[in-house]
């Protein structure tokens, strides 16, 4: 049959009928909203935009012979009439617009076409921060025109006035309400993150008691055994972490430590935190290794219905939930740049997406260790770990970095001191039962509303929140709030920033590493705070916080531990996590550089 010279709503509808598809299925195949297909049916002579014309060509080309003949019969039943001019697409989609749908197999590019032939492609860019809704109007306009909707039609779908939509599109009216933004995204088929709206995942951590079995039998046995291995994992994390490091080549071990470091992950000297360029990308492919990978099955218990739990996080919330467990939207590390011009690149992930790979790795190792009579497991007995052929491949699995900070109170007269924290395994999902540096926490935004995404995309601000929580006992910013933190004026953040700007609160990044047991990616950082500034900022330092308690070499826990060779020697036999040891080793081996005036 002859190719279609120009598609209309009538011909598109004929193709849908010929292929015996419902409106939603046809729309999904084309990569458009179902309402767009409804519009073609209502306005048979409406001409789709050029991108959709190409997608319809491709669908017809790929149809089987029977469907093509059926289309010829249906399309020939009526003669087409004149068509109105099409509303043109913008030359280029906005930065965060996503385009789906078929791409022609053999596209034809006209000579001298310039950039207009790219108007249907998504041009991705690396930018300095996540989407914050500041280009909302451009994104709405681009998606509206891609759906072949007039402003009036789109306003009807959105249940708003055309004048309101016009003002939003031209940037004279802002839209900040999270629920309204989600409604707009849903109605126009836009990923909410493009509008700066993050998912509220707090419900993921609510236990489901119907999954827990209390009756004797294989399900209860499976759940009891899972809890046993989990307890052994938490009780022996320090030992197991150092054993896991022995599975890897010494070339990948950071000197003087048991942590793993990829090529180029360790700077030749400590880097000030404000020297690191933070970039954002929306083009990272989904990870190939996830909590749903078949290799995780051996680390999952049975649920009450006899089926294996689908994710480790779901078993954890139901069978051994720590007090602090929340599936927060988080920042996923996807690239470590050269330290000559230090940079880190991120996209989105969630806490559970990372936990669902990391904790099964630890669980698998603990089970194999128990099976080996508490001896060294063989890699052959660790199928999940084996499946990660390159642990330093940042794109292969979700890599949410934790920021681990050794805090040093710099006092050349009275003696330097540092601070350690005993993490409570009943309170935290990972790293419990061992001494760790403080503060430490995952790199996550403090709020889900669009305006806060650029605001929170900062290693330093993440650390400030952790200092407020761990040292001062303030409530955790749970990441599901819509209330922003005003770092410039809210205390203690404003005081932290003044101390940093004056040079009294210096923060250095010493390495990017992997914790060997869970292969969780970690930033090793060191904060050096002058004694007067420390006493002013942390005069009300707490002894116990939501995640555990501070340790001290003296009766007064807030006095910390002397930063001396004797303390280094004593800590050699302490129950320290590999990451804590790495932080201490980096601080001690570089102490002259870090503590210089």
What does this structure look like?
This protein is an alpha+beta fold and 597 residues long. Among the domains are: 67 residues; 80 residues, lambda repressor-like DNA-binding domains (434 Repressor (Amino-terminal Domain)). The protein contains 21 helices and 14 strands. The strands form 3 sheets. Strands 1, 5, 6, 9, 10, 11 and 14 form a 7-stranded mixed sheet that branches. A hairpin with a 2-residue loop joins strand 12 and strand 13. The longest helix has 21 residues. It is globular and about 95 Å long. The protein starts with 8 loop residues before the first helix and ends with a helix.
What are the key terms here?
4-stranded antiparallel sheet, single chain, 434 Repressor (Amino-terminal Domain), 597 residues, 7-stranded mixed sheet, alpha+beta
User: Considering the protein shown, what is the CATH homologous superfamily of the domain at 116-195?
Assistant: lambda repressor-like DNA-binding domains
Percentage beta strand: 5-15%
SS element count, helices: 21
Major sheet attributes:
7 strands, mixed
């Amino acid at each position: 049959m002859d190719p279609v010279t120009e598609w209309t709503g009538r011909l598109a509808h004929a193709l849908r009928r010929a292929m015996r598809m419902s409106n939603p299925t046809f729309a999904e195949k084309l990569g458009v909203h179902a309402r767009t297909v409804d519009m073609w049916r209502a306005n048979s002579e409406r001409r789709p935009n050029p991108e959709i014309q190409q997608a319809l060509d491709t669908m017809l080309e790929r149809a089987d012979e029977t469907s093509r003949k059926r289309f010829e019969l249906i399309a020939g039943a009526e003669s087409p009439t004149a068509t109105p001019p099409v509303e043109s697409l913008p030359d280029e989609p906005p930065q965060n617009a996503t385009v789906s749908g078929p791409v022609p197999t053999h596209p034809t590019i006209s000579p001298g076409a310039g950039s207009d032939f790219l108007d249907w492609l998504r041009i991705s860019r690396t930018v300095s921060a996540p989407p914050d809704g500041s280009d909302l109007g451009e994104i709405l306009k681009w998606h509206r025109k891609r759906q072949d909707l007039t402003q009036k039609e789109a306003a009807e779908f959105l249940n708003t006035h055309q004048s309101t939509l016009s003002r939003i599109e031209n940037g004279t009216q802002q839209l900040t309400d999270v629920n309204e933004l989600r409604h707009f995204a849903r109605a126009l088929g836009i990923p909410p993150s493009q509008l700066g709206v993050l998912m509220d995942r707090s419900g993921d951590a609510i236990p489901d008691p119907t999954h827990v079995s209390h009756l004797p039998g294989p399900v209860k046995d499976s759940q009891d055994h899972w809890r046993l291995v989990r307890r052994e994992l938490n009780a022996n994390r320090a030992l197991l972490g150092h054993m896991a490091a022995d599975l890897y080549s010494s070339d990948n071990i950071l000197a003087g430590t048991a942590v793993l470091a990829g090529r180029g992950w360790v700077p030749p000297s400590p880097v000030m935190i404000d020297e690191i360029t933070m970039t954002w990308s929306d083009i990272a492919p989904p990870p190939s290794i996830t909590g749903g990978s078949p290799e995780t099955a051996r680390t999952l218990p049975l649920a009450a219905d006899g089926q294996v739990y689908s994710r480790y996080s779901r078993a954890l919330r139901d069978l051994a939930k720590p007090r602090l467990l929340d599936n927060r939207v988080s920042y996923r590390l996807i690239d470590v740049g050269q330290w000559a011009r230090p940079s880190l690149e991120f996209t989105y992930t969630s806490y559970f997406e990372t936990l669902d790979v990391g904790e099964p790795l630890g669980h698998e190792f603990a089970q194999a260790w128990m099976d080996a009579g508490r001896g060294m497991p063989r890699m052959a007995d660790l199928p999940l770990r084996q499946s990660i052929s390159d642990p330093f491949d940042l794109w292969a699995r979700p890599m949410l970095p934790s920021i681990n900070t050794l805090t040093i109170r710099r006092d050349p007269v009275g003696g330097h001191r540092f601070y350690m924290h005993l993490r409570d395994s009943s309170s935290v999902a990972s790293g419990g039962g061992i001494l760790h540096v403080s503060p430490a926490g995952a790199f996550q935004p403090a709020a889900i509303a669009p305006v806060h995404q650029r605001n929170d995309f900062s290693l330093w601000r993440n650390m400030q929140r952790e200092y407020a929580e761990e040292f001062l006992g303030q409530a955790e910013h749970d990441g599901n709030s819509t209330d922003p933190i005003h770092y410039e004026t809210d205390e203690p953040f404003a005081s932290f920033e003044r101390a940093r700007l004056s040079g009294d609160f210096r923060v250095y990044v010493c390495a990017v590493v992997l914790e060997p047991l869970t292969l969780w990616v970690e930033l090793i950082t060191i904060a050096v705070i002058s004694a007067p500034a420390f006493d002013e900022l942390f005069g009300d330092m707490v002894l116990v916080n939501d995640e555990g308690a501070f340790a001290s070499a003296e009766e007064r826990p807030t006095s910390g531990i002397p930063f001396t060779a004797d303390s280094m020697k004593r800590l050699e036999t302490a129950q320290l996590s590999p990451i804590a040891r790495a932080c201490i080793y980096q601080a001690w081996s570089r102490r002259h550089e870090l503590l210089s005036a």
